[in-house]
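Continuing from the previous page...

OK, I double-checked the sequence for MOSC domain-containing protein against my notes and this is the correct one:
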Amino acid sequence: MAPISRIISLKVILSAAAIGIVSALAVRMYQRRKKLKPPTTWEPVGQVKNLYIYPLKSGTPIELQTALCTAFGVKTPDVPNLHQFRDRSFVVYNKNDLKFQTARTIPKLVLIKIEAVDENHIKFSAPNMPILTIKAPNRIENKVVTISQHFNEKIPTIDCGDDAAKWISQYASEQKMELGIAFHDAKQRRNLSKTHQKYFGIYPTLSNDATGLHSDFSSYLLVGESSINDLKDRAPEANIDTLNFRPNILIEGTPPFAEDEWKWVKIGDVVLYFVKWCTRCVLTTVNPTTGIKSEQNEPLKTLRTYRMLKDLRKISVDGTSPLMGINMAYHSGEKINVGDVVYVGK
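Thanks. Re-ran it with the corrected sequence; updated structure tokens here:
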């Protein structure tokens, strides 16, 4: 009888454990839903000054008057017979190890421009390079490659073909790498579960649903103009530009760094929620109009003197990079216009 008793006891223990796990998950999901419930009261704090989309990760932005907002980030308005760009949908990668490349290591990527030729074709241009025109890649005619981004996160994306590879390799020839260009068609979500676990307990609203296409973290980056102006005043010789910080949404009319405290933002009919503060890297030291890195390591050098994380738990995952702007994710709504009033949830 003893073995049977032990078996029954083991089944009871396992059942209890299973119930406990399910209950914990249910509580976590309930708490997450509760946290992601938008507020009902909103306070006006400023307005939208500029809207930007970066079709190529690290490339030149396109300035918009109206931005369509999706779960994957900003999208260009629907213009008849023209391709609609999504934010950071294109990315440069090393064809040998399949690792993504940015202006952190290839500064002059910031000078590459992308334009829509028609609904099915796009063109790339860069200084001292012929114009490259390609058909917008798709999963039927192009191969899918799985590239690696931060923390070795694997992202399936569509290779843009041999002509694009030759063009970008020629442009960045001093890197002595065989490069390619890839395109994310927003058909599937990224999966952070294996690579970003250490962030989840510290930033509870960071999830797969918060990600953009090839963005570092979330699908939207919001910065206050006065925050950048505050930095300019502290480093007047640094020639700091708004585009050093590559925001999607630039807000005017707010005090410096007011955005640090915002958990919910409503602009037009679009509602966004806070994911994490944006930690800044060496890419901000690349001049967006020349593609040359600052020899003085500005604006990072000055930013580090007064814009550092203080919470040891956050430092444990984000390191010692300084802060500028907030990473946000999509909750609901359709579009944002320049001049729209910005509301913060109370």
